[in-house]
Write the structure tokens for this entry.
Amino acid sequence: MMRRFKVFLRRFSIEAPSLSVRPQMPWYVHWLRWLLAAVVIGAIAWYTYDVGLEYAGFRQNEARRVNSELGVLVRDQQKQLADVHAKLAAAERQLQMEHATYEDLAKQVKTLSQENSALKEDLAFFQSLTATGKTGAISVNRFRLMPEGVPGEYRYRLLLVQTGERAKEFTGSMQLVLNLQINGRKTAVVWPEESKRTQPQYRINIKFFQRVEGVLKIPVDAQILSLQVRIFEGQSDTPKLTHDVNL
């Protein structure tokens, strides 16, 4: 009790604690001060961020603008590229058509050139013939043997000519004799066979001349060493003419 009394007296004595008087400020002043401080801090932070972006060479507004311009440029280039692709496809189709047409024309020109050469050869050959030759004589001219696309198949072409004035028509048949080498062994093959020689497809009828063409077949692994053309008259089994061909 005495202790509490001493404390009470001390508040009014010289030893009493000093009293400070502070002016009381309204609450909104405190909030205004805090708001200003927050605004200042935010402005400093934004300025620092903006300076950092500028220092790094990047700005959002500028980036958006550049990105938009690039998007427009890319769309324009894509449209131009699509137009170029369409024109290129049309040009390729046109080129293919022209190329096909050119190939057809080249084939026709080659065929006509071959036919023209053959006609020139025929004309030169017939001009060289004289009417003083033996009447009814048969000759074999311009024999050709060419491999076909199928292995073992060959196409032969030749021209049979009957000389002499007002020669009568020659009827008979033709036969080819091929000397082959197969696996080191030599053998002879007759085309067509004797039993087929008189068939219509192998018959010949010559008034002045006749072109003969056909395809013969031999073993795939055979090599042609030499060839002989035999001409038979009528139904005779003895050839009237034999002509050796230099291959």
In short: The beta strands are 138-147, 153-162, 170-182, 185-191, 203-206, 209-217, 222-233, 241-245. Residues 138-245 form a domain with the Immunoglobulin-like fold (CATH 2.60.40). The chain has a mean pLDDT of 78. The CA atoms of residues 196 and 202 lie 8 Å apart.
